[in-house]
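REVIEWER CHECKLIST
Item 1: Sequence provided? yes
Item 2: Single chain? yes
Item 3: Sequence as submitted:
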Amino acid sequence: MAHPSQLGFQDAASPVMEELLHFHDHALMIVFLISTLVLYIIVAMVSTSLTNKYILDSQEIEIIWTILPAVVLVLIALPSLRILYLMDEINDPHLTIKALGHQWYWSYEYTDYEELGFDSYMIPTQDLTPGQFRLLETDHRMVVPSESPVRVLVTAEDVLHSWAVPALGVKMDAVPGRLNQTAFIASRPGVFYGQCSEICGANHSFMPIVVEAVPLEHFENWSSSMLEDV
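Item 4: Structure as written out by the authors:
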């Protein structure tokens, strides 16, 4: 998860998030190169009184400064489109979960099981145990198997919400009357935190998301115990 004074992204916990981090670094290097070139031109123009008559009226340089930005845009657009299509791919999910946004908590329904669902509320500050995070912990976590494709159906009951977990590279709007879907693969076991990313009212800051990825055997034991409790 994020920590104080962090400058970069969270560590990637899914293949899509790794691709997003690589694309961020790729685009950032292009921005650095452009900024360096522009800064050099500005300093050169300000610090010299000489004038090159060939630069004042030159077809060649006009061709260069027209074609070069187009090439740069292509270098950014192609990997961006590739990642967009990767994020939209949902191939044979092993598990489907419906995330329903309310004011101000989340409900999860495991549609592959009968009557396996629960509400997920934020744990108040006074009830936290040592080691838990304020405003991020919930009384029930969304448990998923690691290294397995998981599909999440996202919708809302009342107003707009947004189901977002940065470490997994997932963010999907929850719209009343509309069923959106997204997917992710947790690359490793762990606990990943997120928050509602759409302003949804007074307690918008108090409806966190906690995804716990566990090995498949542990997930099967957890689901069996949950069904027994039901």
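Item 5: Key structural point noted by reviewer: The beta strands are 95-102, 105-110, 117-120, 142-145, 149-156, 161-165, 170-174, 180-185, 190-195, 208-214.
Item 6: Recommendation: ____
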